[in-house]
Amino acid sequence: MARLTDVCAQDMPTVSLCLVGADTFSPLTSDTTARLFGLTKAGVELILKRPFIDGFHVLMDVHNITHKLAQVTLPVEGGEAPEGLRLWGDIVRFNRLEGASGPCFLVEVTWIKNKPVKEARQRLLKRLGRMSKGGGERPA
User: Fold this and answer.
1) Residue 37: its pLDDT value, please?
2) What is the CB neighbour count within 10 angstroms for residue 21?
3) Are 47 and 104 a contacting pair, CB within 8 Å?
4) Helices (H) and strands (E) in the chain — how many of each?
5) What's the rounded Cα separation, in Å, for the pair 67 and 65?
6) Per DSSP, what are the bridge partners of residue 93?
7) CB burial class (10 A; 0-12, 13-18, 19+) of residue 9?
8) What confidence category does residue 65 fall into, taking pLDDT thresholds of 50, 70 and 90?
9) How confident is the model over 77-109, as pLDDT tens digits?
10) Which of 6, 27, 28, 67 has the most other CB atoms within 10 Å of its CB?
């Protein structure tokens, strides 16, 4: 029988996550730390310790009438300005996972295609890919 790994306890690179307005891209919540679990060209899977961002339940915000986007901010590397390190997407899945030390929460985000521009998005996705393979910041 294959041994299941405890996703909640795994050491993974970290990014920042907040919710932003879909029309203005202005932050609606403060940032929270999320761990990078999986990455594709279409989106990203993140692990949260708690289901809350700034006191609001992520799942409830996804199902609200007002359309919100998730903003994923990569850690600063080599003096880059934070404005150039952001990707935006729709939250398409939110699951509670059970770990040995308690639950964690899987959030799947699908990138929106028009922001940032294609070249910048490609650079950020490459950098996220490097981070996911072990070259990024690790949680303390």
Assistant:
1) 92
2) 13
3) yes
4) 2, 8
5) 6
6) 108
7) exposed
8) confident
9) 766 666 678 999 999 988 999 988 889 999 999
10) 28
